[in-house]
């Protein structure tokens, strides 16, 4: 165990991208970020923030990569955040997704409006 707090725990990933790669999870079971109760957001992400500072320091790296999957590519159906120590030219590039462009400014505005509308209904 790397860190134990009242609402969260952190431990080393058993298949790390780099040494020091940790997973931060809530103690109670929540499958995705959307399932995490509002009152647990601050303590959960405070732990993530703490480790985003501590891991690079401990591993003598200048930065970190913080990531979370929700449903798709979520290998374990329990909310977890990856905090990975990083340095320039460490080989971790482009392994997640291909970048695309919107066809037009109008298409971009339509997508933004769809998201705003969905957020208002949630």
Task: Using brief descriptors, characterize the structure shown.
alpha+beta; 5 strands; single chain; five-stranded antiparallel sheet; 122 residues; globular
Please write out the topology.
Elements: E1 3-4, E2 8-12, E3 22-26, H1 38-59, E4 63-67, E5 81-86, H2 105-121
Antiparallel strand pairs: 1-2, 2-3, 3-5, 4-5
Total count of strands: 5
- Would you list the SSEs in sequence order as H and E? EEEHEEH
Approximate helicity band: 25-40%
- Proportion in β-strands: 15-25%
If you average the pLDDT, what whole number results? 87
Query: How many individual helices?
Result: 2
* Rg, Cα atoms, Å: 17 Å
Poorly predicted sequence stretches spanning 5 or more consecutive residues? none
Q: Characterize the main sheet.
A: 5 strands, antiparallel
- Termini separation comes to 36 Å
Shape: globular
Quaternary organisation: single chain
Q: Helix/strand/pairing class, anyone?
A: alpha+beta
Strand arrangement in the largest pleated sheet:
1-2-3-5-4
Overview of the molecule:
- The structure is a single chain.
- The protein contains two helices and five strands.
- A five-stranded antiparallel beta sheet has the order 1-2-3-5-4, with helices on one face.
- It is of the alpha+beta class and 122 residues long.
- The radius of gyration is 17 Å and the shape is globular.
- The chain starts with a strand and ends with a helix.
């Amino acid at each position: 165990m790397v860190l134990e707090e009242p609402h969260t725990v952190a431990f080393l990933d058993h298949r790390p991208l780099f040494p020091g790669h940790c997973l931060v999870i809530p103690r109670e079971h929540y499958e995705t970020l959307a399932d995490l109760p509002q009152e647990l957001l601050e303590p959960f992400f405070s732990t993530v923030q703490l480790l985003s500072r501590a891991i690079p320091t401990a591993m003598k790296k200048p930065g970190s990569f913080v990531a979370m999957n929700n449903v798709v590519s979520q290998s374990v159906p329990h909310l977890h955040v990856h905090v990975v120590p990083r340095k320039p030219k460490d080989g971790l590039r482009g392994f997640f997704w291909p970048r695309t462009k919107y066809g037009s400014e109008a298409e971009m505005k339509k997508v933004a409006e769809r998201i705003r509308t969905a957020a208002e209904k949630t």
